[in-house]
Amino acid sequence: MKALLLIVALGACGGSSANRIGAGGKTKATKLDPVNPKAAKEFEAAMRAIRLGGPEAHETAKARLKASIAIDGKLWEAWHDLGALAYKDGEDDAAVEAFSKALAINPSHTSTLLGRAEANRRAGRKKDARSDYEAALRNTEEDDPNRRDAAARLASLLRDFGDFDDAVAVLRDTVRVSGINAKIYTELGLIYIQQKRPELAQLVLAKALELDAKDPAIYNAFALLAMKQGKAQEAFLRFEQAVAIDETYIDARFNKASVLLDAGDYARAKAELSAVVEKRPDDFDARVSLGVAHRGLKEFAEAKRTWDKVIKDAGKRSTARADALFNVAILKLDFQNDAAGGKADLERYLQEAPSNHSKRAAADEKRKELGK
Hints:
Layout: E1 17-21, E2 27-31, H1 37-52, H2 57-71, H3 76-88, H4 92-105, H5 110-122, H6 126-138, H7 145-160, H8 164-178, H9 182-194, H10 198-211, H11 216-228, H12 232-245, H13 250-262, H14 266-279, H15 284-296, H16 300-313, H17 319-335, H18 339-352, H19 360-371
Antiparallel strand pairs: 1-2
Helix pairs in contact: 1-2, 2-3, 3-4, 3-5, 4-5, 5-6, 6-7, 7-8, 7-9, 8-9, 9-10, 9-11, 10-11, 11-12, 12-13, 13-14, 13-15, 14-15, 15-16, 15-17, 16-17, 17-18, 18-19
């Protein structure tokens, strides 16, 4: 059987063995129990629902996968795919639970480890995400390309939390053991950008381009470097280069839209963000930004609907949900002259947003203003 390929180059390989590290540091096969034929039939029905697509595809597939698990609870591929579907639908806690069930049966499957890492990461659970990334690194052969990709993802997690030294150490160790690739150079470039070391960033990104001139992530990184240097036009052109290489490369489209939002070009930003949301419905950051574009165009009702959906669907402690809560409050207070409604929404934000959310200080100041 073959499991879903839904998230960040993830996808379980169906089969009868699990990969585990042997005494010598290499992976070895461990036999898994044979699959119940009735469970396999339900599993294939789930895959068929995904292939056929349509608005009910995910719910149909989930129901079939749950039916297969009810027949054979050791069908790890079904648990993995439930996790992948939950992640796709923005249900991070459900994704973590399903991936954990899969790993209880097939403990060292790299794609499942990375899937759980991504779900924990999006939910803000850095420690758990880091643990799974590190396990994925331990469970891969030294010459496995997935090892370098996993290292880049771990380094990007550490970079997001400001752990630059640890991020660089992960990449250097991977280069020492497994060699270099464009993704590692690109991640190094992003680290140097955040460390405000533009010359080093320029150097390693140029090396990445030499290795893979068709990787849109490199042009996206060059654009971020240009933005840090105050070169908005160059950044915009680099984002467009990334999109020209791969129009499905969402990060560049999102960043391009961010430049447009900053420039007050709400109509073009709306077009870019609508394309992002269409291709990645679970990208709540893009939905929040799309709401900002609607607000800039004075489409207030649509802005609120967009943010309300993020509040409903995003993880309870996620940054995107907190952004949406804050924006709904500001929409009512500053744009719709709804002081009572805005004040209530501001209190909700202060109660439900993470304590370290970037808008909390602004919300406290706003509440003081309203109290006068």
